[in-house]
Backbone:
Protein backbone atom coordinates (compact mmCIF):
# COMPACT_ATOMS: atom_id res chain seq x y z
CA UNK A 1 0.00 0.00 0.00
CA UNK A 2 2.97 2.30 0.21
CA UNK A 3 2.59 5.38 -1.91
CA UNK A 4 6.20 6.41 -1.63
CA UNK A 5 8.65 5.40 -4.30
CA UNK A 6 12.39 5.99 -4.29
CA UNK A 7 13.73 8.95 -2.37
CA UNK A 8 10.38 10.63 -1.97
CA UNK A 9 8.02 10.62 -4.94
CA UNK A 10 4.44 9.93 -3.93
CA UNK A 11 2.07 8.17 -6.28
CA UNK A 12 -1.61 8.83 -5.69
CA UNK A 13 -3.63 5.66 -5.49
CA UNK A 14 -7.03 7.28 -5.67
CA UNK A 15 -6.77 9.54 -8.71
CA UNK A 16 -7.14 13.17 -7.77
CA UNK A 17 -8.92 15.37 -10.26
CA UNK A 18 -8.46 19.07 -10.90
CA UNK A 19 -12.16 19.85 -11.08
CA UNK A 20 -12.02 23.63 -11.29
CA UNK A 21 -9.48 26.41 -11.55
CA UNK A 22 -9.39 30.17 -11.98
CA UNK A 23 -6.91 32.98 -12.44
CA UNK A 24 -6.74 36.75 -12.31
CA UNK A 25 -3.88 39.06 -13.31
CA UNK A 26 -2.87 42.70 -13.61
CA UNK A 27 -2.07 44.87 -16.60
CA UNK A 28 1.51 43.85 -17.32
CA UNK A 29 0.57 40.17 -17.35
CA UNK A 30 -2.43 40.85 -19.58
CA UNK A 31 -0.13 42.69 -22.01
CA UNK A 32 2.38 39.83 -21.98
CA UNK A 33 2.74 36.88 -24.37
CA UNK A 34 0.08 34.85 -22.51
CA UNK A 35 -2.33 37.80 -22.42
CA UNK A 36 -5.07 36.17 -24.47
CA UNK A 37 -5.32 33.32 -21.96
CA UNK A 38 -5.98 35.63 -19.03
CA UNK A 39 -9.68 36.26 -19.22
CA UNK A 40 -9.94 37.97 -15.85
CA UNK A 41 -7.72 40.98 -15.27
CA UNK A 42 -7.61 44.53 -13.99
CA UNK A 43 -5.69 47.48 -15.36
CA UNK A 44 -6.05 49.15 -11.96
CA UNK A 45 -3.29 47.83 -9.70
CA UNK A 46 -5.49 48.61 -6.69
CA UNK A 47 -8.30 46.41 -8.05
CA UNK A 48 -10.57 49.22 -6.77
CA UNK A 49 -9.32 48.69 -3.18
CA UNK A 50 -7.60 51.18 -0.83
CA UNK A 51 -4.23 49.47 -0.58
CA UNK A 52 -2.04 47.03 -2.49
CA UNK A 53 -2.42 44.48 0.30
CA UNK A 54 -6.20 44.68 0.05
CA UNK A 55 -5.87 44.35 -3.71
CA UNK A 56 -3.90 41.13 -3.26
CA UNK A 57 -6.53 39.64 -0.94
CA UNK A 58 -9.21 40.78 -3.37
CA UNK A 59 -7.56 38.80 -6.18
CA UNK A 60 -7.53 35.67 -4.03
CA UNK A 61 -11.15 36.16 -3.09
CA UNK A 62 -12.08 36.53 -6.73
CA UNK A 63 -10.44 33.31 -7.89
CA UNK A 64 -11.71 31.42 -4.85
CA UNK A 65 -15.26 32.53 -5.58
CA UNK A 66 -14.77 31.70 -9.25
CA UNK A 67 -13.88 28.06 -8.61
CA UNK A 68 -16.72 27.70 -6.12
CA UNK A 69 -19.14 29.07 -8.70
CA UNK A 70 -17.72 26.95 -11.52
CA UNK A 71 -18.30 23.83 -9.45
CA UNK A 72 -21.73 25.10 -8.41
CA UNK A 73 -21.13 24.20 -4.80
CA UNK A 74 -21.24 26.12 -1.55
CA UNK A 75 -18.16 26.73 0.61
CA UNK A 76 -19.41 24.09 3.05
CA UNK A 77 -18.76 21.45 0.40
CA UNK A 78 -15.03 22.20 0.54
CA UNK A 79 -12.99 20.52 3.24
CA UNK A 80 -9.72 22.42 3.21
CA UNK A 81 -8.11 25.50 1.77
CA UNK A 82 -4.34 25.52 1.53
CA UNK A 83 -3.28 29.06 0.78
CA UNK A 84 -0.22 31.26 1.01
CA UNK A 85 1.35 34.42 -0.34
CA UNK A 86 4.45 36.57 0.08
CA UNK A 87 3.29 39.04 2.71
CA UNK A 88 4.23 39.00 6.39
CA UNK A 89 2.31 36.35 8.29
CA UNK A 90 0.66 35.28 5.01
CA UNK A 91 -1.71 38.18 5.52
CA UNK A 92 -2.92 38.15 1.92
CA UNK A 93 -4.39 34.68 2.37
CA UNK A 94 -5.57 35.12 5.95
CA UNK A 95 -7.66 38.08 4.90
CA UNK A 96 -8.92 36.59 1.67
CA UNK A 97 -10.49 33.57 3.37
CA UNK A 98 -11.89 35.26 6.44
CA UNK A 99 -15.37 35.38 4.97
CA UNK A 100 -15.23 31.80 3.71
CA UNK A 101 -16.15 29.22 6.35
CA UNK A 102 -13.72 26.51 5.26
CA UNK A 103 -10.97 24.84 7.29
CA UNK A 104 -7.81 26.70 6.43
CA UNK A 105 -4.11 25.98 6.41
CA UNK A 106 -1.83 28.96 5.81
CA UNK A 107 1.36 28.12 3.94
CA UNK A 108 4.61 29.87 3.36
CA UNK A 109 6.63 28.40 0.54
CA UNK A 110 7.57 31.68 -1.12
CA UNK A 111 7.05 31.29 -4.86
CA UNK A 112 6.74 27.52 -4.51
CA UNK A 113 3.37 27.84 -2.79
CA UNK A 114 1.21 26.75 -5.74
CA UNK A 115 2.71 23.27 -6.01
CA UNK A 116 3.09 23.04 -2.23
CA UNK A 117 -0.61 23.70 -1.70
CA UNK A 118 -1.59 21.42 -4.58
CA UNK A 119 0.48 18.55 -3.16
CA UNK A 120 -1.03 18.92 0.31
CA UNK A 121 -4.55 19.25 -1.06
CA UNK A 122 -4.09 16.17 -3.24
CA UNK A 123 -2.68 14.17 -0.32
CA UNK A 124 -5.68 14.96 1.88
CA UNK A 125 -7.96 13.75 -0.89
CA UNK A 126 -6.00 10.61 -1.62
CA UNK A 127 -5.84 9.96 2.11
CA UNK A 128 -9.64 10.20 2.33
CA UNK A 129 -9.51 13.17 4.63
CA UNK A 130 -11.22 15.41 2.10
CA UNK A 131 -13.67 15.22 -0.76
CA UNK A 132 -12.70 18.60 -2.11
CA UNK A 133 -9.69 20.73 -1.28
CA UNK A 134 -8.37 23.99 -2.64
CA UNK A 135 -4.89 25.31 -3.32
CA UNK A 136 -4.76 29.08 -3.57
CA UNK A 137 -2.01 31.66 -3.85
CA UNK A 138 -1.24 35.14 -5.07
CA UNK A 139 1.39 37.81 -5.40
CA UNK A 140 1.19 41.50 -6.19
CA UNK A 141 4.05 43.53 -7.62
CA UNK A 142 3.34 46.57 -5.45
CA UNK A 143 2.89 44.73 -2.13
CA UNK A 144 5.91 42.52 -2.83
CA UNK A 145 8.10 45.54 -3.53
CA UNK A 146 7.19 46.87 -0.09
CA UNK A 147 7.71 43.48 1.50
CA UNK A 148 11.04 42.58 -0.06
CA UNK A 149 12.61 45.71 -1.50
CA UNK A 150 11.34 49.23 -0.94
CA UNK A 151 7.84 50.67 -0.76
CA UNK A 152 6.90 52.20 -4.11
CA UNK A 153 6.39 55.55 -2.35
CA UNK A 154 10.14 55.62 -1.81
CA UNK A 155 10.71 55.71 -5.56
CA UNK A 156 13.85 53.59 -5.51
CA UNK A 157 15.71 52.33 -8.58
CA UNK A 158 15.41 48.61 -9.23
CA UNK A 159 18.48 46.42 -9.61
CA UNK A 160 18.67 45.18 -13.22
CA UNK A 161 19.01 41.48 -12.39
CA UNK A 162 15.99 41.46 -10.10
CA UNK A 163 12.87 39.72 -11.34
CA UNK A 164 9.47 41.32 -11.64
CA UNK A 165 6.85 40.08 -9.20
CA UNK A 166 3.73 38.99 -11.03
CA UNK A 167 0.48 40.63 -10.04
CA UNK A 168 -1.85 37.68 -10.15
CA UNK A 169 -3.58 34.90 -8.33
CA UNK A 170 -4.48 31.33 -9.14
CA UNK A 171 -6.71 28.77 -7.50
CA UNK A 172 -7.29 25.08 -8.17
CA UNK A 173 -9.97 22.90 -6.68
CA UNK A 174 -9.14 19.23 -6.37
CA UNK A 175 -11.60 16.42 -5.83
CA UNK A 176 -11.91 12.68 -6.04
CA UNK A 177 -11.96 11.64 -9.66
CA UNK A 178 -15.35 11.99 -11.36
CA UNK A 179 -14.79 13.50 -14.76
CA UNK A 180 -12.05 11.94 -16.80
CA UNK A 181 -11.98 14.88 -19.20
CA UNK A 182 -10.28 16.92 -16.46
CA UNK A 183 -6.56 16.86 -15.67
CA UNK A 184 -5.54 14.50 -12.89
CA UNK A 185 -2.67 14.55 -10.46
CA UNK A 186 -0.74 11.30 -10.74
CA UNK A 187 2.20 11.81 -8.47
CA UNK A 188 4.29 14.47 -6.78
CA UNK A 189 7.74 15.06 -5.41
CA UNK A 190 7.93 17.51 -2.49
CA UNK A 191 11.18 19.43 -2.38
CA UNK A 192 13.98 19.54 0.13
CA UNK A 193 15.58 22.82 1.10
CA UNK A 194 18.79 23.36 -0.82
CA UNK A 195 21.22 26.16 -0.09
CA UNK A 196 24.23 26.63 -2.32
CA UNK A 197 25.34 29.85 -0.63
CA UNK A 198 23.91 32.43 -3.03
CA UNK A 199 23.47 35.66 -1.07
CA UNK A 200 22.26 38.05 -3.76
CA UNK A 201 18.58 38.77 -3.18
CA UNK A 202 18.37 40.20 -6.67
CA UNK A 203 19.42 36.95 -8.25
CA UNK A 204 16.91 34.51 -6.83
CA UNK A 205 16.91 32.39 -9.98
CA UNK A 206 20.46 31.36 -9.12
CA UNK A 207 19.41 30.52 -5.56
CA UNK A 208 16.48 28.38 -6.68
CA UNK A 209 17.93 26.58 -9.69
CA UNK A 210 19.93 24.03 -7.59
CA UNK A 211 16.79 23.18 -5.61
CA UNK A 212 14.86 22.69 -8.84
CA UNK A 213 17.64 20.52 -10.27
CA UNK A 214 17.63 18.38 -7.14
CA UNK A 215 13.88 17.79 -7.13
CA UNK A 216 13.81 17.06 -10.87
CA UNK A 217 16.72 14.62 -10.62
CA UNK A 218 15.09 12.83 -7.68
CA UNK A 219 11.80 12.62 -9.55
CA UNK A 220 13.30 11.15 -12.73
CA UNK A 221 15.33 8.68 -10.68
CA UNK A 222 12.33 7.67 -8.56
CA UNK A 223 9.91 7.27 -11.46
CA UNK A 224 12.49 6.01 -13.96
CA UNK A 225 11.18 8.45 -16.55
CA UNK A 226 12.96 11.00 -18.73
CA UNK A 227 12.17 14.52 -19.93
CA UNK A 228 10.89 13.35 -23.32
CA UNK A 229 8.12 11.37 -21.56
CA UNK A 230 6.42 14.69 -20.83
CA UNK A 231 4.82 17.24 -23.15
CA UNK A 232 5.64 20.15 -20.92
CA UNK A 233 8.07 20.55 -18.05
CA UNK A 234 7.64 23.93 -16.50
CA UNK A 235 9.42 25.56 -13.58
CA UNK A 236 7.86 28.33 -11.53
CA UNK A 237 9.96 31.46 -11.69
CA UNK A 238 13.62 30.79 -12.34
CA UNK A 239 13.73 33.59 -14.91
CA UNK A 240 16.12 33.86 -17.85
CA UNK A 241 19.32 33.26 -15.89
CA UNK A 242 17.92 30.59 -13.56
CA UNK A 243 16.46 28.69 -16.49
CA UNK A 244 19.81 28.41 -18.22
CA UNK A 245 21.46 27.52 -14.93
CA UNK A 246 18.98 24.68 -14.42
CA UNK A 247 19.75 23.27 -17.86
CA UNK A 248 23.46 23.32 -17.06
CA UNK A 249 23.02 21.75 -13.61
CA UNK A 250 20.83 18.97 -14.99
CA UNK A 251 23.20 18.30 -17.86
CA UNK A 252 25.85 17.50 -15.26
CA UNK A 253 23.46 14.88 -13.89
CA UNK A 254 22.93 13.45 -17.35
CA UNK A 255 19.45 14.94 -17.83
CA UNK A 256 19.02 17.11 -20.88
CA UNK A 257 15.93 19.19 -21.43
CA UNK A 258 14.65 19.73 -24.93
CA UNK A 259 12.03 22.15 -26.10
CA UNK A 260 9.47 20.65 -23.71
CA UNK A 261 11.07 22.72 -20.95
CA UNK A 262 9.97 26.24 -20.11
CA UNK A 263 9.72 28.57 -17.15
CA UNK A 264 6.56 30.43 -16.11
CA UNK A 265 8.68 33.50 -15.30
CA UNK A 266 9.85 33.75 -18.90
CA UNK A 267 6.51 32.70 -20.42
CA UNK A 268 4.39 35.35 -18.72
CA UNK A 269 6.44 38.39 -19.83
CA UNK A 270 8.30 39.42 -22.91
CA UNK A 271 11.65 39.98 -21.17
CA UNK A 272 12.99 42.07 -24.07
CA UNK A 273 10.15 44.53 -24.46
CA UNK A 274 8.39 44.67 -21.10
CA UNK A 275 11.30 45.99 -19.01
CA UNK A 276 11.07 43.08 -16.59
CA UNK A 277 14.80 42.30 -16.63
CA UNK A 278 15.11 38.56 -15.80
CA UNK A 279 11.43 37.65 -16.01
CA UNK A 280 8.50 37.17 -13.67
CA UNK A 281 8.48 35.82 -10.14
CA UNK A 282 6.15 35.47 -7.19
CA UNK A 283 3.54 32.94 -6.13
CA UNK A 284 1.12 34.42 -8.64
CA UNK A 285 3.49 33.74 -11.53
CA UNK A 286 3.30 29.95 -11.56
CA UNK A 287 -0.26 30.02 -10.18
CA UNK A 288 -1.67 32.19 -12.95
CA UNK A 289 0.26 30.40 -15.72
CA UNK A 290 -0.96 27.04 -14.39
CA UNK A 291 -4.57 28.04 -14.12
CA UNK A 292 -4.86 30.24 -17.22
CA UNK A 293 -2.57 28.47 -19.66
CA UNK A 294 -1.40 24.99 -18.65
CA UNK A 295 -4.59 23.40 -17.29
CA UNK A 296 -6.88 24.78 -20.03
CA UNK A 297 -4.44 23.56 -22.66
CA UNK A 298 -4.43 20.13 -21.04
CA UNK A 299 -8.20 20.00 -21.37
CA UNK A 300 -7.79 21.06 -25.01
CA UNK A 301 -5.39 18.10 -25.37
CA UNK A 302 -2.41 20.27 -26.29
CA UNK A 303 -0.52 18.83 -23.35
CA UNK A 304 -1.13 15.39 -21.89
CA UNK A 305 1.67 14.92 -19.39
CA UNK A 306 2.91 17.98 -17.52
CA UNK A 307 5.50 18.38 -14.80
CA UNK A 308 4.84 21.54 -12.82
CA UNK A 309 7.75 22.50 -10.59
CA UNK A 310 7.38 25.63 -8.49
CA UNK A 311 10.48 27.14 -7.00
CA UNK A 312 10.78 29.24 -3.87
CA UNK A 313 13.53 31.42 -2.41
CA UNK A 314 13.07 31.05 1.33
CA UNK A 315 14.82 34.14 2.66
CA UNK A 316 13.34 37.20 4.25
CA UNK A 317 14.66 40.74 3.82
CA UNK A 318 16.29 40.74 7.26
CA UNK A 319 18.22 37.51 6.77
CA UNK A 320 19.53 38.87 3.49
CA UNK A 321 20.62 42.15 5.09
CA UNK A 322 22.35 40.10 7.78
CA UNK A 323 24.37 38.41 5.05
CA UNK A 324 22.64 35.01 5.19
CA UNK A 325 22.49 32.96 2.02
CA UNK A 326 19.19 32.10 0.34
CA UNK A 327 17.75 28.60 0.85
CA UNK A 328 15.81 27.40 -2.17
CA UNK A 329 13.06 24.83 -2.55
CA UNK A 330 11.23 23.21 -5.46
CA UNK A 331 8.05 21.14 -5.32
CA UNK A 332 6.99 19.00 -8.27
CA UNK A 333 3.47 17.99 -9.31
CA UNK A 334 2.72 15.68 -12.21
CA UNK A 335 -0.52 16.57 -14.01
CA UNK A 336 -1.82 14.06 -16.48
CA UNK A 337 -4.78 13.65 -18.82
CA UNK A 338 -4.41 9.93 -18.46
CA UNK A 339 -6.57 9.03 -15.49
CA UNK A 340 -5.39 5.40 -15.16
CA UNK A 341 -4.84 4.22 -11.59
CA UNK A 342 -1.18 3.63 -10.94
CA UNK B 1 25.69 78.28 -19.52
CA UNK B 2 24.77 78.06 -15.84
CA UNK B 3 22.10 75.52 -16.67
CA UNK B 4 24.40 73.43 -18.84
CA UNK B 5 27.02 73.28 -16.10
CA UNK B 6 24.41 72.29 -13.52
CA UNK B 7 22.97 69.69 -15.85
CA UNK B 8 26.31 68.12 -16.73
CA UNK B 9 27.72 67.97 -13.20
CA UNK B 10 24.40 66.97 -11.57
CA UNK B 11 23.89 64.37 -14.28
CA UNK B 12 27.38 63.06 -13.73
CA UNK B 13 26.63 62.44 -10.03
CA UNK B 14 23.47 60.58 -10.99
CA UNK B 15 25.23 58.57 -13.70
CA UNK B 16 27.81 57.40 -11.16
CA UNK B 17 24.96 56.29 -8.88
CA UNK B 18 23.35 54.40 -11.77
CA UNK B 19 26.64 52.61 -12.45
CA UNK B 20 26.77 51.56 -8.79
CA UNK B 21 23.22 50.16 -9.07
CA UNK B 22 23.91 48.34 -12.33
CA UNK B 23 27.37 46.99 -11.67
CA UNK B 24 27.58 46.40 -7.93
CA UNK B 25 25.44 44.70 -5.32
CA UNK B 26 25.12 47.92 -3.29
CA UNK B 27 21.56 48.69 -2.24
CA UNK B 28 20.15 52.13 -3.06
CA UNK B 29 20.20 52.98 0.66
CA UNK B 30 23.94 52.28 0.88
CA UNK B 31 24.60 54.35 -2.23
CA UNK B 32 22.63 57.28 -0.78
CA UNK B 33 24.52 57.16 2.51
CA UNK B 34 27.76 56.79 0.58
CA UNK B 35 26.93 59.95 -1.36
CA UNK B 36 26.32 61.94 1.83
CA UNK B 37 29.59 60.72 3.34
CA UNK B 38 31.45 61.40 0.10
CA UNK B 39 30.09 64.95 0.16
CA UNK B 40 31.31 65.46 3.72
CA UNK B 41 34.77 64.14 2.88
CA UNK B 42 35.11 66.12 -0.34
CA UNK B 43 33.97 69.20 1.54
CA UNK B 44 36.43 68.60 4.39
CA UNK B 45 39.28 68.60 1.89
CA UNK B 46 37.93 71.78 0.33
CA UNK B 47 37.20 70.09 -3.00
CA UNK B 48 33.42 70.21 -2.98
CA UNK B 49 33.30 73.99 -2.64
CA UNK B 50 35.02 74.26 -6.03
CA UNK B 51 32.51 71.87 -7.59
CA UNK B 52 29.65 73.83 -6.01
CA UNK B 53 31.03 77.13 -7.25
CA UNK B 54 31.29 75.72 -10.75
CA UNK B 55 28.04 73.78 -11.03
CA UNK B 56 25.65 75.55 -8.64
CA UNK B 57 22.48 73.52 -8.21
CA UNK B 58 24.11 70.66 -10.11
CA UNK B 59 26.29 70.15 -7.04
CA UNK B 60 23.95 71.27 -4.25
CA UNK B 61 20.86 69.26 -5.21
CA UNK B 62 22.40 65.75 -5.33
CA UNK B 63 22.96 64.10 -1.93
CA UNK B 64 26.66 64.91 -2.01
CA UNK B 65 25.50 68.53 -1.69
CA UNK B 66 23.72 67.59 1.53
CA UNK B 67 26.99 66.16 2.84
CA UNK B 68 28.75 69.36 1.80
CA UNK B 69 26.21 71.49 3.70
CA UNK B 70 26.62 69.25 6.76
CA UNK B 71 30.39 69.72 6.70
CA UNK B 72 30.42 73.48 6.10
CA UNK B 73 27.75 74.07 8.77
CA UNK B 74 29.76 72.09 11.30
CA UNK B 75 32.85 74.14 10.46
CA UNK B 76 30.95 77.41 10.98
CA UNK B 77 29.34 76.22 14.21
CA UNK B 78 32.69 75.11 15.61
CA UNK B 79 34.11 78.54 14.82
CA UNK B 80 31.26 80.19 16.70
CA UNK B 81 30.54 77.81 19.60
CA UNK B 82 33.64 75.70 19.95
CA UNK B 83 33.39 71.92 20.26
CA UNK B 84 29.64 72.04 20.89
CA UNK B 85 29.28 73.21 17.31
CA UNK B 86 30.43 69.80 16.10
CA UNK B 87 27.20 68.41 17.52
CA UNK B 88 24.78 71.21 16.69
CA UNK B 89 26.14 72.61 13.44
CA UNK B 90 25.24 69.79 11.07
CA UNK B 91 21.57 69.67 11.83
CA UNK B 92 21.07 73.42 12.24
CA UNK B 93 22.74 74.08 8.92
CA UNK B 94 20.67 71.52 7.07
CA UNK B 95 17.42 72.18 8.97
CA UNK B 96 15.91 74.01 6.02
CA UNK B 97 16.49 71.11 3.66
CA UNK B 98 15.33 68.48 6.14
CA UNK B 99 12.16 70.34 7.06
CA UNK B 100 11.39 71.03 3.41
CA UNK B 101 11.78 67.31 2.67
CA UNK B 102 9.37 66.40 5.48
CA UNK B 103 6.82 69.07 4.57
CA UNK B 104 6.83 68.42 0.83
CA UNK B 105 7.03 64.65 1.33
CA UNK B 106 3.99 64.71 3.59
CA UNK B 107 2.11 67.03 1.27
CA UNK B 108 2.76 64.86 -1.76
CA UNK B 109 1.87 61.69 0.17
CA UNK B 110 -1.46 63.27 1.08
CA UNK B 111 -2.29 64.26 -2.47
CA UNK B 112 -1.04 61.30 -4.50
CA UNK B 113 -1.30 57.52 -4.32
CA UNK B 114 1.63 55.37 -5.40
CA UNK B 115 1.33 53.35 -8.57
CA UNK B 116 3.32 50.62 -10.18
CA UNK B 117 6.41 51.57 -12.15
Residues:
Amino acid sequence: MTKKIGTGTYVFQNPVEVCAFASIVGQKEKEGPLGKYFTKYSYDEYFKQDSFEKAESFMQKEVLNDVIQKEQISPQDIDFIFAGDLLNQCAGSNFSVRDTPVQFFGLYGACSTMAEGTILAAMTIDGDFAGRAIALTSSHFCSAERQFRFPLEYGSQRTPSSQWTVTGSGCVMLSKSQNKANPHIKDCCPGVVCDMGVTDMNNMGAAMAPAAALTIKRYFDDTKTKPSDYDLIVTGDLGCEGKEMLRILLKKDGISFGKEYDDCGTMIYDCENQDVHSGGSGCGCSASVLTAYILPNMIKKKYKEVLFITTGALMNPNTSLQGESIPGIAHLVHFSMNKGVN
Amino acid sequence: MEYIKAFVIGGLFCAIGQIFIDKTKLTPAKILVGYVVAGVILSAFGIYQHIADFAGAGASVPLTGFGHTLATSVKEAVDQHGLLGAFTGGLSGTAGGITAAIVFGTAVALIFKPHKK
Summary: DSSP finds six helices and no strands in chain B. Chain B touches chain A at residues 18, 21-22, 25, 28, 109, 113-117 (CB under 8 Å). The CA atoms of residues 102 and 108 of chain B lie 10 Å apart.
